[in-house]
């Protein structure tokens, strides 16, 4: 059976999402594409009327992989726990920037992304973003 995470355009559910800073997008989608031993992520959204896009391609090899489109991080190291859980560590200039966890619900219709760290201004954040199909 194919993993429901991949090939689905996940849409943010603002009513079930918590942002700890003033960064609260009006819309956001995530698209995960499966690659051998990893995945490609594309995030698109709008914040205060401005469109944004960022993403990366990561392999589960314990190495950092480039992140594009963000000014607070420049790489991610991703680890696959199982088919429903991936964890990772974002870095900026080789310095740890924030932890990341992605959890696909058992019903495969809800995706929760947790991120914690420091933003580009050095302010701490803890965000829980909920997406649905």
Give structural notes.
The chain is mainly beta. It has one domain: Lipocalin, CATH 2.40.128. It is built from no helices and ten strands. Strands 1-2-3-4-5-6-7-8-9-10 form a ten-stranded antiparallel beta barrel. Strand 3 and strand 4 form a beta hairpin. It starts with 8 loop residues before the first strand and ends with a strand. The mean pLDDT is 93.
Uncertain regions: pLDDT < 50 for 5+ in a row?
none
| Strands in their spatial order, largest beta sheet | 1-2-3-4-5-6-7-8-9-10
Beta strand count: 10
Q: What's the mean pLDDT score?
A: 93
**Radius of gyration from the CA trace?**
14 Å
Secondary structure: elements and pairs:
Layout: E1 9-12, E2 27-35, E3 38-47, E4 50-59, E5 65-68, E6 75-80, E7 85-92, E8 95-104, E9 110-118, E10 124-132
Antiparallel strand pairs: 1-2, 1-10, 2-3, 3-4, 4-5, 5-6, 6-7, 7-8, 8-9, 9-10
């Amino acid at each position: 059976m194919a993993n429901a995470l991949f090939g689905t355009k996940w849409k943010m559910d603002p009513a079930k999402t918590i942002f700890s800073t003033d960064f609260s997008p009006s819309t956001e989608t995530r698209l995960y594409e499966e690659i051998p031993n990893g995945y490609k992520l594309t995030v698109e959204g709008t914040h205060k009327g401005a469109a944004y896009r960022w993403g990366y391609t990561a392999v589960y090899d314990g190495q950092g992989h480039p992140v594009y489109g963000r000014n607070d991080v420049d790489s991610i190291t991703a680890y696959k726990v199982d088919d429903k859980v991936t964890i990772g560590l974002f870095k900026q200039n080789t310095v740890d920037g924030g932890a990341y966890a992605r959890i696909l619900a058992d019903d495969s219709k809800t995706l929760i992304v947790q991120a914690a760290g420091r933003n580009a201004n050095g302010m701490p954040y803890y965000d829980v973003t909920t997406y649905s199909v």
